[in-house]
Amino acid sequence: MRFSRRLAVPAAAVAALAATTALAVVVAPASAAPAPVAAVPVLTAGSAGGSAVAPGDALAAPLAGGTVATFYSTATSTTGVTCAVSQLAGKVLTNPTAPGSATGSLTGLTFGSCTSNVTGVTSVRSLTVGNLPYGITVSDGPGLPVTLGGSTGAIQATAVLNSWFGTITCTYQLSGAFSGNADNSAHSLAFRSEHFAKSGGSALCPADGYFSATYGPVTDTTQAGGPAVYVN
Q: Fewer CB within 10 Å, N- or C-terminus of the chain?
């Protein structure tokens, strides 16, 4: 035969245990709620995550220090036109919260101090682009891609050259997409071997032109001090 024994717990002990449990519940720290992440636009000025670049702000950039803009006859050659001076200008149209893409309008792209090493060409009168403004999109995706598109017609380049045979004009239009990449460390935009096909001009003009240039730093000239622009 089995006998069971119930352990009698004094009422005072039960009361003390209940009081201790209640105290623990009171003093136990509540789990801290995660702090909300502040919304950051795709483009900021002065620092990553800094002040927003506002729609309507003007942007500008010269050639990156120590670089030149080139317009060569093939993607791998070094024959063509080289410009020691170039400047781009534009304005921001939209700048949404990251992740995403900011859009703008490229209103100016100028070239100066240009030379040519093409046989028979004695000097460069001018190198200009046509059908401005160009639409521009900057994405915060991998590689910080940048794309340009003609908003009033095909992106066009015209070179006016002095040659042994007199003045010749060579006109080119973009063949395919015009794309590049942004770089936050240098606050720059880089374009490499963007292909243009001859669309008019002298028979002496090369059939193709490949444009390469790096512009930076890109600055917001509307904001005080012209801070550098970051892609977040």
A: N
- Euclidean distance between CA atoms 229 and 231, whole angstroms: 7
- Give first-to-last CA distance, the chain, whole Å: 80
Identify any residues that bridge with 150 across adjacent strands, giving them in sequence order: 134
* pLDDT tens track for 163-206: 999 999 999 999 878 999 999 999 999 999 999 999 999 999 99
**b/e per residue 55-89 (b: at least 16 CB within 10 A):** eebbbbbebbeebbbbbbbeeeeeebbbbeebebb
The separation between CA 128 and the C-alpha centre of its own chain, rounded to angstroms, equals 23
Helices (H) and strands (E) in the chain, counts: 1, 16
Q: Is 21 helix (H, G, I), strand (E, B) or coil?
A: helix
Compute and round to an integer the Cα radius of gyration of the chain. Answer: 32
> What is the Cα–Cα distance from 92 to 101, expressed in whole angstroms?
11
Q: What is the largest CA-CA distance in the chain?
A: 127
Q: How confident is the model at residue 153 (pLDDT cuts 50, 70, 90)?
A: confident
SS3 121: strand
Structural domain boundaries in the chain: 55-231
Distance CA 55, CA 95 (A): 7
Q: List residues bridging with 184 in a β-sheet.
A: none
* Contact criterion met (CB below 8 Å) for 196 and 172: yes
Per the model's pLDDT, the better-predicted residue between 63 and 28 turns out to be 63
What is the separation of C-alpha 71 from the centre of its chain, rounded to a whole number of angstroms?
A: 22
Q: In what order do the strands lie in the sheet with 51-52?
A: 51-52, 43-45, 229-231
